[in-house]
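Many introductory courses stop at the sequence. We go one step further.
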Amino acid sequence: MPKSFSEYELNDWLRLRPLLHHVKTARYRIVDRLYLRLSPRAGDVPDITRRMRGQRVLITVAFRDPEAIAWQAQLLRRFVPQALYFIADNTPDDSEAAAIAAVALKFDAPYFRLPKNPWHQSSRSHGVALNWIWHNIVRPAEPEAFGFLDDDLFPTAADDPFAPLQSQSFYGLVRTAGPRWFLWAGYCMFRFADVRKKRLDFGQDWFCGLDTGGANWEPLYRHVAREKLQELSGRLEPYRADIALSQGPIQWCGTWLHEIGSTGNRDLDEDKRRVVSALLAPLLANRDGLTSTADGH
């Protein structure tokens, strides 16, 4: 939901921002609701729904990066074996989507391709993709617990991301926007029984400063005392010691390594991918006697 009218200042009213924000929000919601009715472009949804029932499931939203999906699939199998892993493909290009589907087949990960996304802006596209998964897959499947992952997030040590759900309804990396807070959509876990009747919305609300997942503030997070929650720790650092953080950050989310997408510089992106590949290579090559690459970083 957009901000309440009382949160706007006089200057906002003089520029008609409250009305514009509410009209735009209504338009976004209409487009999103129409999208939720579309059928997937690939995948056996009834079978996927059946396999999720009563299980602990992790769902990643893939986007044009089969290499990252291959790394994630292998590392989740090694370090988070208690979770069932599913790939929801939000890739617009058919040939790139076929490459991701081939990776899913290779690593025996259930795959479905989302409907053609109505949004080109990445955060909005990601949010409506998560909402489609929630409404069309997760809610009908009724898993014990579920979580969403970014496709460039990699576990580097044994972990149980669902363990905190024994004492709370959700768990993840918290982000804040003024008085509001929300779980980052790239790592967020939920106990299904506690949210099944909530009107969850994994979209964004830029008018409140909320990125993807932030629209759950209204139906979910505002009702919970944050100080009582266990939260995932997060820390940013430059991907190379000789560059500034702003040039190319990576993020440690506990012992999970987040590559953090594009820097906007192709050369830096390629160099960062080489560095991340080198960090993960020992974990992908040898399954015995290794500790987290985060140790001592």
